[in-house]
Design a protein that fits this description.
The protein is α/β, with parallel strands linked by helices. The chain has helices spanning 37-51, 63-73, 85-97, 113-120, 138-148, 168-175, 233-239, 250-260, 263-266, 270-286, 307-316, 337-349; strands at residues 24-25, 80-83, 103-106, 124-127, 152-156, 181-185, 209-214, 227-231, 290-291, 298-302, 319-320, 329-333.
Length: 351
């Protein structure tokens, strides 16, 4: 049926990462720690309580879940919106504020779904690039905004796949241009190093700022698919114009609320993962590899003459990492101590 496909979609491949059955899977930035038993039991009870009411539609505005998310962020429920992962959140934002005849600006290498979300919403995507060290300066960002005048500017902090965090000076400099909306993707915010700020602190003074987050990473809740945004209430009202009716199932909402009630327990693995991330960074550098500074739960490392060959050699040893399409670079998720040890051992074998 390719002849009926939209022209701009022809020849494209769907987003995805290999899902291979190997001993050590460190390619999709999941939290390697399973749900603690107390949380698993709470989620099971919450789901059980909902099952007999599945003949009814869920709360289409997810007010209870948004109230709990707002409490976690220190905000009000009317400042928060939830959806099926931060991907759907960002898709809804593009549907509401971008689309045909409008443009979104990004700074690659960055999250590879951003161009695809733009493609799916008929939004023009402009990649203004980054420095050779994968950093982004306020001057470069402001120049790109002035030159392209986007309807939506997409910033990532920490950035995926590089792990690079943004200073608030950069976010404020872009906001000062008063050009469209500014979306800061903070999917990995809970893993940032001490002293690294969150754009959430700017919300009260900038009504064009949107911060998107997820429960997939730090909360070890990737299988539940829950993402959310924080913004001015008028942004939430606009997004509700394009969201599908009942887009979050009653089971999803119940599970997420049960998890949020145990946020302190779930987030207990964050420090352990950060320690493994820092160990990976220091160990790889000691081996002589180049490593990007990371404020996320993953590390970008290289440089390989051929990263595809290096990826295969690691896989042959039972370690799955991610080839993100950057020449000479691979990305590895920080997991458990055992997974880190297996990865580092495999890296010594491919020197």
């Amino acid at each position: 049926m390719s002849e009926f496909l939209r022209e701009e979609l022809k020849g494209r491949t769907a987003y995805g990462a290999p899902q291979l059955d190997v001993p050590v899977r460190l390619n999709t930035n999941e939290n390697s720690y399973p749900l603690p038993e107390v949380v698993a039991q709470a989620v099971e009870k919450a789901l059980s309580d909902e099952i007999r009411g599945l003949n009814r539609y869920p709360d289409r505005d997810a007010v209870g879940l948004r109230t709990d998310l707002a409490a976690y962020l220190g905000l009000r429920a009317e400042q928060v919106w939830a959806a099926n992962g931060s991907n759907e959140i960002q898709q809804q934002l593009l549907q509401a504020f971008a689309g045909a005849g409008r443009a979104a600006l990004g700074f690659g290498p960055a999250y590879s779904m951003h161009p695809l979300l733009c493609l799916g919403t008929a939004t023009s995507f402009i990649d203004a690039g980054r420095g050779e060290d994968f950093g982004l300066t306020a001057g470069h960002a402001v120049d790109a905004v002035r030159r392209h005048r986007p309807d939506v500017t997409l910033l990532c902090s920490p950035n995926n796949p590089t792990g690079t965090a943004l200073s608030l000076d950069i976010v404020e400099a872009v906001l000062a241009q008063k050009q469209g909306l500014v979306v800061v993707d903070e999917a990995y915010a809970e893993f940032r190093r001490e002293g690294t700020p969150s754009a959430l602190s700017l919300l009260e003074t900038h009504d064009r700022l949107i911060v998107t987050r997820t429960m997939s990473k730090a909360f070890a809740f990737a299988g539940a698919r829950v993402g959310y945004l924080a913004a001015h209430p008028s942004i939430i009202e606009a997004v509700q114009l394009v969201r599908l009716p009942y887009h979050l199932s009653a089971l999803t909402q119940a599970a997420a609320r049960a998890a949020l009630a145990h946020a302190d327990v779930l987030l207990g693995t964050v420090e352990a993962i950060k320690q493994q991330r820092d160990l990976i960074v220091s160990s790889l550098r000691e081996m002589g590899w180049q490593v990007a500074d990371s404020d996320a739960n993953f590390v970008l490392f290289g440089r390989f003459p051929d990263q595809k060959t290096a990826w295969r050699r690691l896989l042959d040893q039972g370690v799955l990492v991610r080839d993100v399409g950057l020449d000479g670079w691979l990305r590895v998720t920080a997991g458990t101590p055992a997974e880190t040890a297996a990865f580092l051992k495999a890296m010594k074998e491919i020197r």
